[in-house]
């Protein structure tokens, strides 16, 4: 069966670490979404998957991107779903990997052709509910890692203008001539009592 992606432009510079490797996954060509509430697996003809193949979830460390790869039984790539929540513009997880309304074992993936960048949504399902739980756990870990990364960037950035002015004012306070450090300490203690009141 011809795959959905051209593998000639796959990123080989990044080092990938496999997080999941499942020997059986069901892949479905799904109808267009007609309801704003979400996808339902019972509309996919679950007994007639387009492909019964293999599933891998990999983390590319350099770019901090996850890739879900759907493989044919031969091992050749059928479709790939890149998950990049730190891109420009950033994407939300549920725009790339969606859970369905009627089952915990089925998902909708936004797959991308590496060469043409054409996007297509496909459905996947696991026979074992444990694999679905593992996938959700890895995705949640990835989201938390992105949140920590973004928080670290914020801490490195300059403080907001209003805080900067306050800090400037604090730095400009000098001990007056003839005023002893002991007196300053006593004033600080008075303020501490006031705050505790």
UniProtKB/TrEMBL annotation:
One of its GO terms (biological process) is endocytosis. It comes from the Eukaryota. One of its GO terms (cellular component) is clathrin vesicle coat. It holds the Pfam family DUF1681. This is NECAP PHear domain-containing protein. Residues 184-197 have a biased composition (Acidic residues). Residues 177-197 are annotated as: Disordered. Residues 19-161 form the NECAP PHear domain.
